[in-house]
Every structure is written in structure tokens, then in C-alpha cells.
Task: structure prediction
Amino acid sequence: MAANGLFNRGLFKQAAQEYDEFLAQYPTHAQATAARYWMAVCQYRVREFDKAAEQLRRVVQDQKFAQRDEALAVLGHCELSQKHYDEAVAAFDELAGKYPDSKQAEPATLNRGQALYLAAKYADAAKGCQAYLDKYPNGTSRADALYFLALSQRGLKQNDAAVGTLRELTGKYSDSARQVDALLVMGQALEAEGKLQPAIEAYRQMLAAAPEPRKADAHYSLGVALYKAGSYVPAAAEFSTLVSEFPGSTFAKPARLQLGLAQLEGKKTGDARNTLNEVVRESPDLAADARYALAKCDITDEQYDHARRILEEFMVVQPRPANFVQAAIDHAFCTMKLQQFPQAADELETFRAQHADAPQLAQATYWQAFCLHKLGKYDQSHDLCQQAAKLKAPDIAQANTELDAEDLFLLKKYAEAGKQFAALARTADDARRLRFTFRQGQCEYFAGNYAKAVELLHPVASDAKLGENDELQQVNLLLGDALLQQGKAAEAIEPLKRYLAVAKTDRPQAQYTLGVAELKSNQPEAARQSFDQAGQ
Result:
């Protein structure tokens, strides 16, 4: 048959035509099934998968065809190539079930698992790949089986199991063609579990093993993992290398954006602006994200008015950007930092109403409370602080508790405020503990609990850091008056004098209180002078 000669010479298109003509002329010939099979193989070789599958379905109907197992194998591959995954699985199942001794049975077992994975039937795919590994301990495709098993485990969100599978693959089959992909998937699985340092190591191994066409992928994956780990300088180095050495890569444009973000997080806002403006000019599909990052540069540099204008442009882009919600709260933050507290409070109220399920809800609630506090609306601020506390957001918990304590203090709810300041003092560093203890002492003083106020204010008044903080200087005035209120006039004189030595406010009150203490301590001349100075 002339077609066989053409086939053997690799002229598959011409061979297929010869086979087709033979079948048209001799449809019932004893070799008709064989001719149809070889015609399908030719069509498969030239990637005419639909035509090949059509012929092979007729071939496998002949249960006596000597090469039926091979026909099922090719049919399975044709279906797989057309993404007809169920049909591919059926072909591979029949092959492995009816022809277990065929040389096609081993690859069919693995191909079945691959088809199930591609069909997103991850549990069945994992079982299929494991079945291959169990049945063929010395199989030539064990690396492939391990790779698709790991992918299936990833699909099932079994990332730790996937890492274990991939470690076996990369350890036992280091010369496998799957090595680079396996290291990539391993890094992704580790990254998904928040194990960034091991992920970074996997990506470094991938970079070392990758052929030149895959190095861009490795640089990008490594850079993203470093960025997530807060290693912004080395992340920027990876993105910069990718952009300069692989400008034609599909990763080059997103890498330039990521480079700008890494420079921003590394506080190199000048470099970030240059990079991000280049993204805006050259990558229209990434321009919105770059403009948002430029606004973040302005926020970092405290250029809040300009940042707000960029955010306003960003927030009207259609379709709505993925980070629209974050941009909305950033806009409110800029308004707040510009001390436009009424407008900021309104923005944050709108944000909370429109984005009640947003992860930024606690932050928005706290900032609105802060704005209302600045506007003297302490009751409303206190209510919002209570709402923010219920959201249990660690990043705002400390600041929210402090703001709430200040609200209570200014609302003259001294007992409640004192408890909160005491709790804050227990966990604060030295400088802030001094302030919180002072506030606690103020609460006791204004509540008329002078003995407790003296107990709290004494250590604050004697602290060496007192002179560094103008607000804390008032402690001596309160301490002196609290001692006087307890009838300890002589003890009150020294703290009152200390206050007057540095006082910038309340001098007449302090002079008068000192005069009273001196008078009650039988120092009439000193008292007269203090009263005279109080009247000046």
C-alpha cells in the first residue's frame, strides 16, 4: 500500500489522503480497519484531533482489531487534546481494563490521572496518579505521576501534602523535565501556607535550575515572595533584573509594576515614582494600579492633597478597580490628615455603610471615631470606639482603646477612663506608661480621690523623663493640689514650686494654690508674695 511508504517517510498529510482514497475504493477490504487506524494516526500527527477521533471511534468498534489497545490510546490522546476529558478517561479506562498486559496500559493509567486533573476532578485525579505510583514502582513516568499528584493535592488545598510529593520528585528525579515546574509549584504551595522563607528557597532553586526561557518566571516568583516577606530591597533587585534582562518576557510589564511597589514599600518614593510613571505610559492595562501606587507614594511623603486628587481619578475608572475599597478608605485618610475632620467623618460613615463586610471596617470605624473626637463629639466617638473594639482588629486595638479612654476622660467618666488607662499602662513601653499613669492620676484627682491621685502622681513627678514632655509637667500642679486637699500643705509646696519653675500655662492658679499651701504651713510672708504674683 503506497500510503504505508508515505507514512514511514513522515509524510503524514499525504499518507492520510492515500488511506482515505483506499477506504473510499475498498470500504469492506480486510485491511479497512487497519487503514482507518493508520489514517487516524496520520491525522493525529498533524494535530487534526477531531478528524482522528472520529475515525478512531469507528476503529475501536472492531473488537477483533489486533491494535485496538493502541487505537484506544491514540483516541484518548485525541480527546484529551480537544479537552474532552470525560471521553479521554473512558478511553484510558477501557484500555487499562481490557488490555492490562499491553505496553499502552502503563501510560494510559497515568494519562487517566492527568485527564481527571485537567477536568478539575482533583480527588479522583489524586487517586489515579497514586494508582500509577503503586502499580508501577519502576515506571518510566513516575516523575510525571508525582507532578500531577502534587497538582491534584494543590487543587484540593492540601498544600503540605503537595510539598511532600514535590520534595520526593525533586529529590529522586532531579534530572526530570518536571524539575523546574515542580520547584515552581512547591514554592506556590509553601506561599499559600504562609511559609514564605521555604517558598523563597524553592524559587531560588528554581532560578538555579531553570533554562534561560524560564528564568523570567523564576525571577518574578522569587520577587513576589520576597515582597510578601517584607524583603523589599532584594525583591526590587529580582524585578529589576527581570525588567532589564528579559524585556520581551510576559512577566516584564507586571514586574515593572511590582518593582515600583517594592521601591515604595522600601521608602524609595523617588525611584518608585519614576518606575510607576513608566508603567502608566507603557502599560495601559496596568496604568490604574500604577496610579493608585503613585497616590500611596504621596501618602508616604505626606502629600495628602495631591494623593487625594489621584485617588479621586482612580476611583472613577471603569470597570471598578480591584482595590477600589482600599482606595476609598485611603481617600478618607488623606482628608483626615488634612484636618478636614467633618468631611472625613462623613466619608468614613459612608464607607462603613457601603462596605460593611470589608476587612478595612475596623480601621474605618476607628478613624471616624478619631475625627469625631477632634470635633468634640466625645459621646459619638466613644460609641464608635466600642463598635471598633468588637471587631477585634489587632492593628488598631491599642490606639482604639487609648482614644476611647480619652473620650471617657473628657466626658468626665473618670472611673471608666481610669480603668482603661490602667490597662494601657500595664502593656505600654516606659514613655507611654508614664503618660497613661499620669492620665490615671488625673482621673482619680478629678473624681476627688486625692489619696489615690497622690499615689499615682508621685512616681510620675519624680521620673527623669518628665522634663521631656510638656503635657506631663502639669503633674506637679495636680500633685501639689491633691496633697493640699488632704491637709498636707507643707508637702504640697515643693511640687507646686517645681511646676511654677517650668509652667507655660495655669501660672496664676498655681501661684494661688502655692500661696494657700504656704499660708497653711505658717509661711505668711511667702504666701503674701505668692498671692501677689497670682494677681499679676
Summary: The chain has 30 helices and no strands. The CA atoms of residues 277 and 290 lie 7 Å apart. The chain has a mean pLDDT of 94.
